[in-house]
Amino acid sequence: MAREQLSAMTESFHWNEFADREALAEALAGRIAGLLSAAVERRGTALLAVSGGTTPARLFEVLSNQPIAWDRVTVTLVDERFVPPSSPRSNAALVTAKLLQGRAAAARFLPLFRRGETLDEAAADGDREIAALPLPFDVVILGMGGDGHTASFFPDALELPALLDPENSLALMPVHADSAGEPRLTLTLPRIVAAGFLALHIEGDEKRATFDKAMSNGATGKGPQLPIHAVLDASPRPVEVYWAP
Ligand SMILES: O=C(O)[C@H](O)[C@@H](O)[C@H](O)[C@H](O)COP(=O)(O)O
């Protein structure tokens, strides 16, 4: 089924396509900055949750120079690999190196990994900290893997039913999945879809094909139901999908 048909049928997403990755980063950073500024004006503070991995580095660099009241913004992660910031796989390290620079260095950062704590302890403490924020998040930016996972909602995660449960009262949970590489912490589906603005940032033909497959399987009920579809399906507003080749 064509993407346009699926979008019109399900109204679960808007497709935003760009000629190249630089143009995407400029457009998405501008959109995020406008939304964060509006939140600061409206309620004196703004909450942003970003994903890690490899895709968002360029976006973070552009976003870090947006002229907004960064000292009123709290930044956290959608999900984190349970590794210290010294690891090249640390999402906190990526955010520190690429986003919390320049103007954005004034933002408050809430990391999810905690030195000296077990995964379960960090999940419980992080859950308390996130629940104490003035939720909902104003902006949440998701990524997606080639297996259709988003956040740390891996298809083989032991905790997947709870992570995707719209009634889950937890904000943050531990995740164990063989395909994930290491244990993780992730925001749960209800906290993600409650965001004022929810975007999925994907790049390249392979990810576009994965996205199309996930939406098509979801609409037809055929083939594996992929976690990214569960998120789009649960979102009360169309998810803004940002794609460039
Ligand atoms: O920590 C992570 O891995 C993520 O937050 C994850 O959900 C990511 O967004 C996708 O796996 C895409 O990763 P890439 O951008 O590296 O393809």
Number of strands: 10
End-to-end Cα distance? 20 Å
Largest sheet: 7 strands, parallel
Quote the beta fraction: 15-25%
| Bound ligands | 6-phosphogluconic acid
Task: Report the average pLDDT across residues.
Answer: 96
N-to-C SSE string, H for helix and E for strand: HEHEHEEHEHEHEEHEHHE
Helix content: 25-40%
* Category by helix and strand content: alpha/beta
- Strand order, largest beta sheet: 1-10-9-6-2-3-5
Query: Low-confidence parts lasting 5 or more residues at pLDDT below 50?
Result: none
Task: Give Rg in angstroms.
Answer: 17 Å
Distinct helical segment count: 9
Q: What is the overall silhouette?
A: globular
Function: Hydrolysis of 6-phosphogluconolactone to 6-phosphogluconate.
Domain Glucosamine/galactosamine-6-phosphate isomerase: 20-233
Protein name: 6-phosphogluconolactonase
Family: Belongs to the glucosamine/galactosamine-6-phosphate isomerase family. 6-phosphogluconolactonase subfamily.
